[in-house]
Each structure stands twice: as C-alpha cells, then as structure tokens.
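> tool_call: predict_assembly(chains=two)
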Amino acid sequence: MDSTTLYQAGAFTGKAPHKRRRINPFVFWLVPIVGLILVFSIVPIVVSFFLSLTDYRLNQSLTFTGLDNFVYALTQDTVFISTLINTLYYAVVSVPVGMAISLVIAQMIFNRKHMQSFFRTVYFLPYITPMIGVVIVWRFLLQPSQFGILNSFLVPLHIPAQPFLNSAGEVIPSIILITTWSSVGYNMVLFLAGLGSIPDSFYEAAKIDGANSWQLFWKITWPLLSPTVLFTTVTGTIGALQIFSIPYIMTQGGPEDSSRMVVMWIQQTGFAQFRMGYASALAVIFFAIVLVLTVFQLRFLRTRWSY
Amino acid sequence: MSLSRSLSRTKSSFFYAALLFGTVIMVIPFYWAVITSLMLPDETNHFPIIWIPTKLTTQWIVQAWNARLPTYYLNSIVVSACVVVSNVYTSALAGYIFAKFAFPFKNALFLVVLATLMIPFAVTLIPTFYIVTVILHLNDTLWAMIVPALVSPFGIFLMRQYTETIPDELRDAARMDGAGDLRIFWQVVLPLCSPAMSALAIFHFIWIWNDFLWPLLVTDSDHSRTLPVGVALFASQRWLQTNLVVAGSLLVMFPLVIVYFIFQRAFVQGIVLTGMKY
C-alpha cells in the first residue's frame, strides 16, 4: 500500500475515501524547485532559440532576421569555424588519451595491496586542486625557451626546447597535457570502482583455462568495464567540448586564434561585442553538435557492447 | 614455475617504477609552486633551475594575500556554501518526491528535468544573463552567482535514484506513528540519504568553487569577485612577477589540498557515487 492509497483511505484525514486520486500536499514542495529550473534552465533554452533568429543586442529593440545568423556563422564567420575545429580537435584527442592513461594507471594500482591508497591519493590530487591555481602554475612550467621548467627536462634528453603555448601547432597539445594531468585521477577513480565490481572468480576461471594477462584484460576486464568507459566517454566529451577557462586565462585564444574555443567565441560575440542574437545562434549550433556527438557515441558504443 | 614467478616480479617492479614516475609528474608542479612562492627572484630566474632554494622569504605570500585575496575567499565561501546547502536540500526533497509520490505528469516532468542536464551551459548563458542582470538587477552581487544555481537537475536525478532504494515500510511505519510528511522527510529520509548527500555536496562544491565563466560575466568589482575570477585578474596584471603570481596560486590551492587530505576518502567516494549513479 503506497502513500497515496493510504492517504485516500482517509487514514490521516479522517475523511471518507475520495473517488478521484488526491495529490498529497507534500508534492507541492516541488513547485518552487521546478519553478527555479523553469526560470533558469527551460525558459533560457527557449529564449535562446528565439534570440538566435534575431539581431538582438543588449537593451536594444530587436528585429527578426530569420536564419541569417546561422547562414553567416556557417559560411562567413571564419573565426567560428576555426573555433569549432579547435574544440573538436581538443575533445577528440584529449578524451581518449586521458581515458587510456587513467585506465592504465587504474590497472596498475588495482590489486596492489601496498601503497594503493597512497597512489590513489596522489593521482587524484590535481583533480581536487582549484583550476585557477593549476592554470597559473602550468603557464610557468610551459614557458618557451630553454629556461622553461618543462624544457629544462627536455634539453638534457637532446630534445630541442619547445615553444608550447607560443606556437599555433603546440598550443592545443599543451592544453591537452594540462587537462590530462589534472583530470586523470577522476577517471582513474571511476575505473578503480569499475574494476572492483568485476568478480574475482571470472579471472580465476580464465587463468585455469590458461589465459595470459593480455587475454584477461581484453576478454574480461575491457568488456565488463564498458559501462564505465561509456560513461566517461560521453560525459568527458560533453565536458571537453565546453572548455573555456584554461585557454581563456592562459592564451586568450592565441596565438592567432589557434586555441580559441567555441564557448570563448560565444562569450566574445555575446558579451564583448554585445551581438547577443548572433551569439545565441552560435550557441544553438554548438548545442546541436554536442547533441549529435552524444547520441552518436551512445548509439555506437552501446551497440558494440550490448551484452 | 620459478621463471614465471620471477617474470611476474619483474613486471610488478616495472609497474612500481612507472607508478612512482607518474607520482613525480603529479607532484612536481606542486613542489615547484611551493619553492617558487618562497624563493628570491634571482634564484627563480637562475639557469640551470634551482630545485632546492638556499634562501627563503615569505614576502610573496604576504603580498599576494594582501592583494584582495581575503575578499575573494570570503565571496567564494559564501557563494559555494549557499549553493551547496540549497542544492543538497532541494535535490533530496525533489528526488524523494519524484521517487515516492504519485501525481499527474510525474514522468513527463521528470523527463523535462533530465533533459536540462543535456544542455550545455553556453546555450542558456545569454537569457540567464538577461534574467539576472536586467530583470532581477543582481549584477555585481553574490546573489547573481547564487540564485541561478540554487537547484540542480543532476542532484535531483541522483537523489531520486538513491531515495528509490529506501523501503516504503519505513515511511509507512513513521506515518502510523503520526508523523507528517515533512517530519518523515527530515527524520527518516534525510538521515538515510546522508552518503548520497555528502557525495553530492562534494561534487557541487568542486564544481561551484571552480566555476569561472559565469562569475566572470556577472561580476565587475572586487566586492563580488570569487576566487577564480579575482585571482585570474590578479595574475593577468602581474605575469612578469613570477614569484608573486605563483604565491597567489599557492594560496588558492593550499587550503583545498589540505581539506582533501583530511577528507580524502569522502572525496573519492563522493566522486565514485556521483559518477556511477549517472
């Protein structure tokens, strides 16, 4: 017997049971909560789609311009196209690289009786460290010329000093290095939990059958970790596509727009140039891309791993 | 047999070496930040790099702390405290209602809440900015950062998953004893949810403490800037003073690292719980 039926039965009100289902008044606590979601999530989405069809600028009257913003963005706004390419490049490389490294670390830490919690603590530490601190420190570590900290490790290995953030070709790999360093612990912790949920008996049975550790990984660990892999890929990609603060603070999008990301361009057009209608159109295009990629990943990875 | 054992021992020591190498990579940036905040500039600019400073000074730390850092800290603490408390409470309440009560359009409403999870923040940015600054006049106040973040669709989703596992019998028993719904929520449901609630609190704290884009847009002066925005500004004006800027970054990182070491287990479990329930 659930609450509503008890309630209807008049157990608490002393009234006769109602014919119609009555709503428990407690449910009305949802009103302010859902109201806030409505005001700060749902209404803004709808308004964004509307604004994307106008030439709106803050505090000015707007005219309806149809699909002009979209046409302009996709055909003439070369900066937007390059931010799209930069962002996709960043996400497509950083997500698998970060996952592979954290999976390898998780595998090496797992089953290690000694020092497991020590390693876990250390690798997780950068994730907990405030992003602004990480960005400042890495900006110095990645200084170009032989005096930079990272370069001082490369030069003795006969690798020439790298320009890192100062070169169009290396700026995104440098950002990938930083985000991988700072987020490797997050995925590692999820993978450790995933590894912990695989029963030992699977491995024991396979070992009796003579499987080597390579086979153990590909035939048991990898397929059984697929839910974790799916989760980290999908959420990691959504997060990576929205990268903003690291390039914003470190490079301001330079050199020559080579590290300018989509969200930076939306912020720039909307809040520095005040072309808010146009920025909304960019946001809508961006949303469509995120959605397509997410659906694609869910479908592709799920069908590959449907057990 | 002995061959395979020695093989697995070599493998194990190789793993150890690799993990220790990784540990060095994880730790070196922190170590460099600590020594640079305490070094004299001529040692910082020395080549080859000096890893063990001979003279230490606290002048950079003091100077960085005096550059409005206490204000930024206070702002960040107020914003994240309000957001986290409100998020955890409203998520538990809404999650519980979605899990255990029947009402019309419940599933449709829940789907709408879930759908907002999919929306990148950039999409809602401009209308939310309009609501907060033009309609509510909250520009350059801490409220501008608190009000839009008071409720969390992700939190509601997480708490619904969690409260669903609470047996109905507990609630029915409390009801038999004459407890009202609000009292049941406070005295039966909330205590049972504490693992999920602390996980959610940690998750949201990390997120709101690092939030950069939104505070950047709605703050114009030091009395409302939070730590990330304030320190980014501080650094951007002083990039050439390496020691000072790094001392500033150290002051931002240090307290959180300490908190992490104290509540390490809770942090890790919080991340796992929020990650796994998705």
